[in-house]
Amino acid sequence: MEHLKGVLLDVDGTLVDSNDAHANAWVRALDEAGVRADFATVRRLIGKGGDKLLPEVSGIAADSPEGKAISERRGQIFQKELLPSLRPFPDAKELLACMKKAGLRLAVASSSKKDELGGLLRVCGADELIEAGTSSDDADNSKPDPDIVHAALKQIGQPADKVILLGDTPYDVEAATRAGVKVVALRCGGWGDKDLAGAVAIYDNPADLLAHFDVSPFSPEARGAS
């Protein structure tokens, strides 16, 4: 891609090993509300916004009183009980530092709630390196709708053809593609190559991408940079 200027970053499952924790928080919150949800079913939906995930697994509207109570409880479980033990994927911060050194601007495009995103960014050190961040609170429609990607593009001040989104789920791929943004995907979030079809390149995790950075779509040569 010529003249690449920036990177839009998903966080959960991309920089932080948090997808299982998110699924566990949903399953526990639903169970407390008397709603049984299979972990594997919920896990496959992590990466979508909670407003889409909740009705899909339970039939409960996210904006209903019951849905709001479940979502609030999920957030409490995640932030208080699970977030403190989360860890970044290997070389996540080093990858972002490499991108910055290469002259790329970094912005977050996450389906996480804003009050959770700050903690997740601190886990991987991204809070020290990014220029802008968007969460599900900044968009009318969550992933896989493209609203969050559009919001991140606006914050970073770049058009769609000047950035690449780094993500880990098919919902990242769909949201970015619908916004006209190319995607590089990582397998560390739990999805395989078939799920991530549409990405211009796929790597195992941040460490794998960092090890191959010079031949990746982010490299100066691939970008057409001088």
Supply database-style keywords:
Rossmann fold, single chain, 6-stranded parallel β-sheet, DNA polymerase, domain 1, alpha/beta, 226 residues, 2 domains
In short:
This protein is α/β, with parallel strands linked by helices and 226 residues long.
Largest sheet: 6 strands, parallel
Q: How many distinct helices?
A: 10
Given as residue ranges, the uncertain stretches (5+ residues, pLDDT < 50) are none
Through-space gap between termini: 13 Å
Strand content: 5-15%
| Top-tier CATH class of the largest domain | Alpha Beta
Q: Which structural category do the helix and sheet elements fall into?
A: alpha/beta
Overall pLDDT: 93
Integer tally of domains: 2
Helix content: 40-55%
Q: What is the approximate shape?
A: globular
Q: What do we call the CATH topology of the largest domain?
A: Rossmann fold
> What is the tally of beta strands?
6
Q: Assign the CATH architecture of the largest domain.
A: 3-Layer(aba) Sandwich
Rg is 17 Å
According to CATH, the homologous superfamily of the largest domain is: HAD superfamily/HAD-like
Cross-sheet strand order for the largest sheet: 3-2-1-4-5-6
N-to-C SSE string, H for helix and E for strand: EHHHHHEHEHEHEEHH
